[in-house]
Design a protein that fits this description.
By secondary structure, the protein is of the alpha+beta class. Helix content is about 30%, strand content about 25%. The chain has 2 domains: about 5-165, tt1808, chain A; about 190-215, no CATH class. The longest helix has 15 residues, at about 25-40.
Length: about 220
Amino acid sequence: MHLKLSEYLNALESRLRGATEHTHRPALQILLEGLAKELYPSSNVKALNDPKRTDAGAPDFVVILERESTLYETPPSLILGHAETKDLGIDLDRLRGRESEQQERYLKAFPNLLYTNYLDFILYREGHEEARATLARQQENSLHLVEPEAVLALLRHFLEYQGERISKANALTERRRFIPERSPVTQSPRRRKTRGEAGVLQLTTDAKPRLSLREFT
């Protein structure tokens, strides 16, 4: 079994007694960030717990990818997906009341959404279920493995989502929209030296008639 999953299971099992939905969030956060680091080794990935509220609500986690800056630009942070957690033992297929209404909003608002009770995982894409897998079953104060490889594949698929990625070309286009155009530069009239009558030096331009210094004497 993958090391990150093994560490995650150990963290869950060590805190089964009296646990709530919030108890296991740190373990899930470490798991998501650890797997994301394997997928994006040159970038910084954060699974933020209790992120800023949106119009649709506030899922428990938002996974953000901060891409590496280049010489010419600092790419914007990208949202890879959102995750909503429920208590251990909660049937994710039978959410009711406020939780059911919440799920409807989330499915419409977030294109890459993960629902989990820490052991069961369901991945939704564009509002439709795409994959599900069960990591383990709880029996009293112990956990028994079911399909860890399927869960690993599901979580990687969740983190690899590219639907909200902005290409460099599009990002540059967006940046240019906010750069004011420069006013056209008026070219100065070309100046040249000529010799007028009696060899008197004249300073002339293409925009003005020639003036001889003799005219002012």
